[in-house]
Amino acid sequence: MPILSECHTKIAVLHSLRSNAPTQVLVEWMEARARRELVLTLLLCFENDIVQSLIADLTVTHLKQLTALSLKSNMLARARGLRKRALHLFYRDIAAAEFARSPLGLRLQDPSWLAELSGEQMLRLMLNVPAELRAALLSCFSPLRVSKAMLLCTSDPEKHKLMTALQAINLVSEDDLDSLLQFLDHKGKKFATQRLDEPSTARYLGAVINNLSQDDSQQMLAALQDKPQLLHELRHHFLPFESIASLETQELAAIFAERRERDIAYMLFNTDTLTRNTVLNALPEVTRLGVQDELRQLEADHHQRRVNLHRSAHLQLEVRNYLRNSARQT
Question: Which candidate, 44, 118, 168, 228, has a CA 20 to 30 Å from the CA of 4?
């Protein structure tokens, strides 16, 4: 899920700035009784090393409250339902801290639009400000944020723009910052909105391909191989079933938790070995053994192969639509 990735990045950036905003948000949430379930849900989203850093400022009483909460019946199922809300609220609450000590946070008339940008949107902002203001903009970001942006670049010309600006950071003056802030106050928020609302060929193609069969979608993608930039943009609008292999084990387990073993077997019937094994390894052992048994039966029934492929495509589409809708809400 993109929002989980954005939270990871934001936590890392804040850590590089020696900001304790993430831990303080959790303390504030624990003090508000109604938000304690969100704290528990949030902690279930992250790896152990991040969890340990997030709970650093929680008191012994807080930890006992979380333990008692986790033991309540049906709590894990409830946490799955709260997962998206918890991540969104957490990101919102820690977002502005990245710019708290930056001219962007201190001097922009309305810095909220900037704090809410995703990592990719920040990259687009860096690439689309006037060249003479790019060094001033990069000087306002943390080094780690700029490094993360460079990793998101999709071409050498994009990287070259950032590298050229980085070489000029020592030349940034107060006048350059004033010009940058004036530009962002007048055009920054509008630019961010346009990036979300402008007509998009990739968005349109993604909507078409998402409703095609697996074979037809692969043919469509093959026909676009000579358009690498369009293919890159398309990844934000089209999610093949195999993309679930990149999710974390907890996310996979949550997606398949309420599914019947037979339906999971149908989904895995027509996919690659890596995806199949990734999903199977995320399932509880009893469920995994049941799904494997169902798969053996499906693969042995050659007379029903066409029917099974159709059923597989239908159920895979349900998961693909779920992943696509989750991405749209991030």
Answer: 228
- Alpha carbon distances (Å) from 211 to 220, 234, 263, 325: 12, 14, 19, 13
Q: What are the tens digits of pLDDT across the range 257-269? A: 878 999 999 999 9
The radius of gyration computed from the CA coordinates of the chain, to the nearest angstrom, equals 23
What is the pLDDT confidence band of residue 310, given thresholds at 50, 70 and 90? confident
Q: Which residues are within 8 A (CB) of 303 and not within 5 positions of it... i.e. 6 or more apart?
A: none
Please name the residues in contact with 179: beta carbons below 8 A apart, sequence gap of 6 or more: 132, 133, 136
Q: What is this structure's pTM?
A: 0.59
